[in-house]
Structures are given as structure tokens and as C-alpha cells.
Design a protein that fits this description.
The protein has about 325 residues and is α/β, with parallel strands linked by helices. Helix content is about 35%, strand content about 30%. The strands form 3 sheets. It has an 8-stranded mixed sheet with strand order 7-8-9-6-10-11-12-13. A 3-stranded parallel sheet has the order 3-4-5, sandwiched between helices. A two-stranded parallel ribbon has the order 1-2. Helix 3 runs parallel beside helix 4, helix 5 packs parallel to helix 7 and helix 7 crosses helix 9.
Amino acid sequence: MGRSGQGLHLPALARVRAAAPGLLARAPVVAVDPFRARPELPGVVEAGSLEEAVRLSPPARTVVHLCTPPAARENVLARLAGLGYRKIIVEKPLAVDLTGLMAVARIRRRWDLDVTVATHWLDSGLTRRLRAAVRGGRYGELRRIDVIQNKPRFTRSTAALDHPTAFDVELPHALAVVLSLAGGARIAGASSDDMVFERSRVPRLGRARLRLDHVGGVRTEIDSDLTSPVRERRITLEFDRAVLVGHYPCSEADHCAQLRVVRPGGEATRSVFTDDAFAAFLRGAYGRYAGPVSRMHRTLPVQVDTVRLLTEAKRLCDGQGPGALRREEVQGGVR
């Protein structure tokens, strides 16, 4: 279960159940979380262990939502596979380093797992509109992408070190999106800051910045600040003949996105639309799992490239001092 399981996955599953009757089984969701005690949740049956969950939810007809922190994922994934589960949705990122990525790959190949990573920005209505703008060529060639991810995260970062760096919190969402929009990339620079407040300092969990040079010529900058006083998820695409500025929903409290198109001379149009990306992601994943067997989700290569690039970014920041920025071409980068 975990925090994301209760706060994000369960509410989205309820919305999918309401919107697509018959896609999900009517049985309650079986939850396993030996490390947390919580009040009884409606529509949820708590199991004391994974072995008990097998008796409540047969693996052949079950999709597992693996909501553990990425550093603790390998052992749980192997246990799930050994118990017979094959359809598994995992929280982002897929792994925090190349060692973890290779371990997940070995487990996936050994047990023939169908793994889907929950980077739901790829299923966002805003992302679909941006992708259409890139492919359609209406505004000319894409030249640059800027992403801002501001999200104050002081309490959670100090209460539970479930992510080792700021690169592992919000950046996987944005990185997957820019790779899907502009193609493979090499790292041009990376930097990170500690989280500092009152008398506390949390290493590497304050701010993360990443610069990319895409093989097609597009340049990207991503800035994720977990010490910001405000929440914002903004993406800007600069084309030859227009600038598109999109705002993703910032929380489960509201599922609307916004897109502004600015043309030469300052002419601008603005649209606001419903964008329940996580429910859309789950509906697509369950629809795929209910159909013919697919051995690899279409976005899995992007998820793998995301982990590789983030691993390299963290390596560049290690030992360079706070706020260090270094330019280095990544050998064997994304293609």
C-alpha cells in the first residue's frame, strides 16, 4: 500500500470503476502493508502478508500496484513474482540507479513479468496536446523545452527518507515526458541542493536541475524545487512560430490542466480542460491487462532511459559540492 497507494492509487481506481463499469472486479482491493497501521478503509481488505494476499486475490486475475519506495522494490518484486503475480504496476521511478535497474530487469525476464511504470504524465491530456503539436508541425520545429516542478516537501522529506535525492521525486515524470516529445538525449549539465530549514539539513533533497541535449537538436532544462513556497508544474515548448505554456494539475484536489499558445506579436489563446491523468493511466493499463498479453508496455524503454539519465545526473552531482554544475557527454546515452 504505502502513502501513494492510499492517497493516489485507491481514489483513482474508484474513479476508473465508476467511469468504466466491468473493467475492474467487484471484489474489494486487497492491501498489504506490514509497516503501517491505519483505520479500516472502505472497499479495502487488509492482508497481513503477501502469502495471505494470494488466498484473497488469485495471481492470474490480479493486477498488483507496487507502491513501495524504489530502493525497496527489488525484494518485493521478486517475492510477488515467486507467488505467481505477473501484471504489476510500479511507482516511479523504476529504480534509483543502474544496479537496481539491472536487478528489476533480471526479475522481469526470469518471471516474464508485464511491468507498467506509473509515470502518468505520459497519459495526460496536456501531454497528448503537446505531442500533437510536435508531430503536426503547425508551429514549425520544436527548439526548446523548459519544465518547472515546484513542490514544498519539507515534512515528508524529513519524516520518511523514501527517496534518496530530489532527482527521484518529481523529475522522473518530467523526464519521461520530454523524452517522449523530443526523443533521446544526452546530459549537458546537472546540479542539486540540500534541503535546509530551521536547524535541519537533508542532503540532496532540496532542488535538482537537469539540462539535456536531444539528438534531434532540441534543448531541455528541468528545474525541480522541493523547497519552493508554492506548487507549480509548468512546461514550456518553444517552436519556430509559437510558444506553448502548459500547466499540469498540482494535486488530487483538482484535475484540470491549462494550455496557453502565444504566437508572434503577442497573440495568445488559453484553454482549460479536465485532465485526470492518473485515472487515464490506470484505465489504459487495466484495459491492456484485460486484453491480449503484451510482454512490454510501450513506455517501458522510456522508463529505462529515464533511470539511466537520472543515475548519470546524480553521479555528476556527487562529489562536486553543493549546487555544482558540470557539463559532460554521456557515453552510451539514450537512442
